[in-house]
Amino acid sequence: MWRAFRYHLGTVAKGSFIITLKCLAFLNQNAYTATAINSTNFCTSARDALGILVENALRVATINSLGDFALFLGKVLVVSCTAFVGVLTLNYQRDYTVWVLPLFIVCLFAFLVAHCFLSVFEVVVDVLFLCFAIDSKYNDGSSGREYYMDKDLWCEFVEGSRKGGRYNPGDGDNREMKPMVVNTAY
Questions:
Q1: N vs C: which end of the chain shows fewer Cβ within 10 Å?
Q2: What distance in Å separates the CA atoms of residue 2 and residue 170, rounded to the nearest whole number?
């Protein structure tokens, strides 16, 4: 914790300022992830994360589409189950003549709670995807350049990355941490 305050307090302040302005929210999340991975400042991490996401634009679109659909189904399931239990519960309560309004309020709160919990899931999926993209860019599964991810689980995705020519076998052993995107123009 002391290291974060001593070395990255400016990064946290700058990132918080940008988040406060409510622009580039998706980029901020990935920039913080890149800061955690590479221990670079916020702007460098944002540039690196953007480069990785642009290289994997089709995968980003696929993951976001499928993820948003899964989150929508999760919210619908939670609200539907809550409404079903509410109808069963309020149906036997003869004291309530108007039970639609309390049921609607309960369903609204169920949706809000489901949204909060599933938003955490969405962030985790985005972070794991960025880690996957970095791993598939810098590693090829050979000796000395092993993947950090499970090979059986991600075999199909990695094969597509290798065919795209996103790594260079002559870069050394790649065991040290380095920036995600190499910037040649200074």
A1: C
A2: 37
CA-to-CA dists, residue 100 to 54, 82, 87, angstroms: 48, 13, 9
For the question of whether the overall pTM of this predicted structure is more than 0.70, the answer is no
Tell me the mean pLDDT in the region 27-38. 84
Dihedral class, residue 172 (left if φ above 0, else alpha if ψ from -120 to 50, else beta): left
pLDDT digits (tens, 9 = 90+) for 114-125: 999 999 998 898
Burial 7-41 (b: 16+ CB within 10 A, else e): ebeebeeebeebeeeeeeeebbbbbbbbbebbebb
* Residue 97 · residue 125 · CB < 8 Å: no
DSSP label at 41?
Answer: -
SS3 state of residue 59? helix
